[in-house]
Specification:
Elements: H1 2-21, H2 25-45, H3 49-76
Helix pairs in contact: 1-2, 2-3
Length: about 80
Amino acid sequence: MTVWIIVLGLIMFAGSVVVIFQKSIKNAVITFGAVSLVSALMFILMKAYDAALAEASIGSVLTTAIFFWTVRRLEENGFNEKK
């Protein structure tokens, strides 16, 4: 089980680096949501079910939805990602 935790940790680290270097904000938000979902899986492996539930519901779903809402509002107000 320790091997799986290390693998998931490396996936989270790689995903975090990918988020930093994304050219598209929407792709960065999707990658961020995936990293958060992997974090919830890691909490499940560590038998921290309450933290996994909170991470899955708040980190993966709610935060990603708020980020997409913010990106949409920015686009409505004239924000152009290609500048």
